[in-house]
Design brief:
By secondary structure, the protein is an alpha+beta fold. Strands 2-11-10-6-7 form a 5-stranded antiparallel beta sheet. Strands 1-3-5-8 form a 4-stranded antiparallel beta sheet, with no helix packed on it. α2 runs antiparallel to α3 and α6 packs antiparallel against α7. It is elongated. The longest helix has 23 residues.
Length: 326
């Protein structure tokens, strides 16, 4: 990937990044930029701008043109303040990162960022760049804070950090590029990418041992009402009974007792690599959860008892995401 700094080759940008790391504050979830962490360079347009000013100045000297002197000094007096404004557009800016929701591998993590001003100064046309190349814009004009979400592309499962985030601006004239790098102490959990092919679910309960999901379609007879348990599906809530008694209660169907599945590591072929096997198990978990099936998970080193609900699904997916990680 080409350098993200103007007029700087990529190999030299790495040197600048390593040098700037020593000047950055301690890594946490909130950073306030100061002049010690800000850097500035002229853009290509800025270099051309001042090169043209030099040509006008030399021409004025050579031909003794007074209007040429006036034009040179006028344009110079307009260009140099642009450097100050670009620098001050980032100075004393506060950036705070929030918690990102888990995603599947190959998807983008959306890290929430809150930008706020420490002074009454407005901050316009601010860009944030992730290590994977995505950008997001933010503006702080006539308001004290704003929020945006920075996408970061994932390539593998596990805990992923946002890495080095570049914050920069070329406001107001585009002649100077002011920037800084941000590092935050936060991570996002990335689940394995689910397989595109749906796998048959094997039921292992006592009444329907060995039957697949296709053999149990339509088993949804209403059995009664019981007290609410953590993880029960919202669409199974007995709202009429709740309105009468004021207590949380759940409808119980025949599927809630008959449809129990064990999602097991041995259900995947040994010839497949680990990531492919995890991908298949991930698809099975999603299918079972979508069909409101009670399921458990058995993988080497992890055993999760059968249950249902959103919390149980995330627990199983987390086990897959961290499989083999220390």
């Amino acid at each position: 990937m080409a350098s993200s700094l103007p007029l700087i080759p990529q190999f030299f940008e790495k040197f600048i990044q390593n040098w700037s790391d020593k000047r950055q504050p301690d890594i946490n979830n909130q950073i306030t930029l100061s002049r010690h962490q800000l850097y500035i360079l002229p853009t290509r347009h800025g270099v051309i701008y001042f090169f043209v000013l030099l040509l006008i100045l030399f021409g004025s000297i050579n031909y003794e043109i007074s209007l040429g002197y006036m034009l040179t000094f006028l344009l110079g007096s307009l260009g140099l303040p642009g450097m100050i404004y670009a620098h001050q557009n980032l100075n004393r800016l506060n950036i705070k990162i929030g918690r990102a929701e888990p995603v599947f591998a190959q998807q983008d993590i959306l890290f929430p960022l809150q930008l706020s001003q420490c002074t009454a100064t407005s901050h316009a046309n601010i860009e944030l760049l992730s290590e994977t190349g995505q950008t997001v814009a933010a503006h702080l004009i006539n308001k004290s804070s704003t929020e945006c979400k920075l996408p970061v592309t994932t390539t593998h499962r596990g805990y992923i950090s946002p890495g080095r985030i570049k914050i920069y601006t070329e406001y107001p004239l585009g002649l100077f590029h002011a920037w800084s790098w941000l590092k935050f102490d936060t991570q996002c959990l990335v689940y394995p990418a689910p397989s595109l092919q749906h796998q048959p679910l094997m039921f292992v309960d006592e009444q329907n041992t060995g039957q697949t999901s296709s053999e149990l379609q339509g088993v949804d007879d209403f059995l009664g009402i019981r007290q609410y348990h953590s993880g029960d599906l919202p669409n199974h809530m007995a709202w009429k009974a709740i309105a009468k008694t004021g207590e949380l209660q759940t409808k119980l169907f025949n599927t809630d007792t008959a449809r129990k599945v064990s999602i097991n590591w041995n259900q995947t072929r040994e010839t497949l690599d680990i990531e492919h096997r995890l991908s298949i198990l991930c698809r099975m978990i999603l299918d079972a959860s979508e069909k409101s099936i009670i399921y458990g998970l058995e993988i080497p080193g992890v055993s999760i008892a059968p249950s249902s609900g959103l919390q149980h699904k995330h627990r199983c997916l987390k086990a897959l995401a961290l499989f083999g990680h220390i």
